[in-house]
Design brief:
The protein is an alpha/beta fold. Helices cover about 30% and strands about 15% of the residues. The protein contains 6 helices and 8 strands; from the N terminus they run ααβαββαβαβββαβ. A 5-stranded mixed beta sheet has the order 4-2-3-5-8. A 3-stranded antiparallel beta sheet has the order 1-7-6. It starts with 14 loop residues before the first helix and ends in a 16-residue tail after the last strand. One of its GO terms (molecular function) is ligase activity. This is YbaK/proline-tRNA ligase associated domain containing protein.
């Protein structure tokens, strides 16, 4: 037996009004289903990573550490074809932490391997076979400085056991879980010790942008918060002179 729809006064609604309300409920349900389909279609078109993909891992790690200032920004697929000044403008919306973005805030994470290391893994941060190194795009990594810094952490080990080079791409992918252009020092598959260029500690504002786990996603965060949360090393690891990238006009 069907239940009659009741009016506010407690009486049964006229048949036409009851049918109208029933149709209205059907329309609302259809609208909800349609909106859900639109949302899913937008995610597919935008290439939004699913929860089980690397970006979700980075976001989860940023929350767990925590890095309160962590902000994620999706960029166009042509991002790496742009000069640094255009990349800066793409990330420079003042609504994100109210910072004025300059090219000095754009950073990258490089995977280094100590090919002469006495160890095969990364369990000892003082003497790891692999290091994730963060530098600005406007600087150049100097491997000799990395050698001196890590050697200083291990004075008891002969210098013949230290020789740094870029880690092979397939090894980097395996250890970090991130592809080229997407490497992030947060949420890596394997806990790898991080060395941050000390120049980043002198930035004003204290903010940097890094790879975010997907080539089209960038992670921005406060430098001091990052150091505190990750307990990374901070060292002088770049050439003293600026690279050619620094000569771009920061307009």
């Amino acid at each position: 037996m069907e239940t009659e729809m009741m009016s506010a006064s407690g009486g049964a609604l006229p048949q036409w009004e009851a049918m109208l309300l029933s149709r209205q409920e059907d329309v609302l349900r259809l609208l909800e289903q349609l909106l859900e389909r639109v949302r899913r279609a937008e995610e597919v078109l935008a290439g939004v990573p699913k929860d089980d993909e690397p970006v979700a891992r980075v976001k989860q790690a940023a929350r767990a550490l925590p890095i309160p200032s962590a902000a994620f920004r999706r960029v166009p697929s042509t991002y790496y074809e742009w000069p640094l000044t255009r990349r800066r403008r793409c990330l420079g919306a003042p609504s994100v932490h109210q910072v004025s973005i300059t090219t000095l805030l754009l950073c990258k994470t490089i995977m280094l391997e100590n090919t002469h290391c006495t160890r095969t893994g990364c369990s000892d941060p003082r003497n790891s076979r692999y290091y994730a190194v963060i530098i600005q795009y406007t600087t150049r990594l100097q491997s000799q400085k990395v050698f001196k810094f890590v050697r200083k952490l291990n004075p008891e080990i002969s210098k013949k056991h230290f020789k740094f080079r870029l880690a092979p791409e397939e090894i980097s992918d395996q250890l970090t879980g991130f592809g080229k252009g997407a490497v992030c020092p947060v949420g890596m598959n394997t806990p790898i010790p991080v060395i941050l260029s000390d120049r980043l500690t002198r930035l004003s504002p204290q903010f940097m942008w890094l790879g975010g786990g997907h080539i089209d996603v960038k992670l921005g965060c406060n430098v001091t918060e990052f150091i505190t949360a990750t307990k990374c090393y901070v060292a002088d690891i770049v050439y003293d002179e600026a690279s050619e990238a620094a000569n771009e006009l920061d307009d």
